[in-house]
């Protein structure tokens, strides 16, 4: 969280209407904005007390959550909603791109309703 606290944009992230989450190598949720928590049907505190693997339904192939989030960047992923349904969303690339970054900071665009209306 120290890395995120040093980011001058942290307060801005909290105000974005776009779901944003920061995750460590181990999958610990360091930060989630209100839009992310709302998309998953959780409070921010509940989400930040979880491991991201608990809500990330897309199969992971390695122990590194950061590597897996990078691998699935710009693709349709599946997330668990607290009430049970699967959320389908496009996940961005991590905003943190240095080789030594041990945190992924990603955004999501929820496409669940749109895909449902299209019959997919």
Task: List the defining traits of the structure above.
single chain, 120 residues, alpha+beta, Beta-Lactamase, five-stranded antiparallel β-sheet, 30% helix, 24% strand, globular
Describe the structure.
- By secondary structure, the protein is α+β, with helices and mostly antiparallel strands.
- It has a single domain, classed as PAS domain (Beta-Lactamase, 2-Layer Sandwich).
- Helix content is 30%, strand content 24%.
- The chain contains 6 helices and 5 strands, in the order ααββαααβββα.
- Strands 2-1-5-4-3 form a 5-stranded antiparallel beta sheet.
- The mean pLDDT is 87.
User: So what's the CATH class?
Assistant: Alpha Beta
- Please give the alpha-carbon distance between the first and last residues: 38 Å
The CATH homologous superfamily is named: PAS domain
Question: What is the count of helical runs?
Answer: 6
- Helix and strand element order: HHEEHHHEEEH
Q: How many beta-strand runs?
A: 5
Based on secondary structure, the structural category is: alpha+beta
Considering DSSP H and I runs of 4 or more, what fraction of the residues is helical?
25-40%
Number of domains: 1
**Quaternary assembly:** single chain
Output mean pLDDT: 87
**Strand portion, in percent?**
15-25%
CATH architecture: 2-Layer Sandwich
Radius of gyration: 14 Å
Catalogue the unreliable spans: none
CATH topology: Beta-Lactamase
**Overall spatial form:** globular
Strands of the biggest beta sheet: in what spatial order? 2-1-5-4-3
């Amino acid at each position: 969280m120290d890395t995120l606290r040093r980011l001058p944009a942290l307060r801005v992230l909290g105000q974005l209407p776009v779901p944003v989450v920061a995750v460590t190598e181990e999958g610990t949720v360091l930060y989630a904005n209100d839009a992310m928590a709302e998309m998953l049907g959780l409070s921010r505190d509940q989400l930040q007390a979880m491991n991201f693997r608990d809500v990330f339904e897309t199969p992971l192939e390695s122990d590194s959550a950061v590597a897996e989030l990078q691998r699935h960047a710009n693709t349709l992923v599946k997330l668990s909603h607290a009430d049970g349904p699967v959320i389908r969303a496009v996940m961005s690339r991590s905003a943190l791109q240095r080789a030594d970054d041990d945190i992924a900071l990603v955004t999501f665009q929820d496409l669940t309703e749109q895909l449902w209306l299209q019959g997919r």
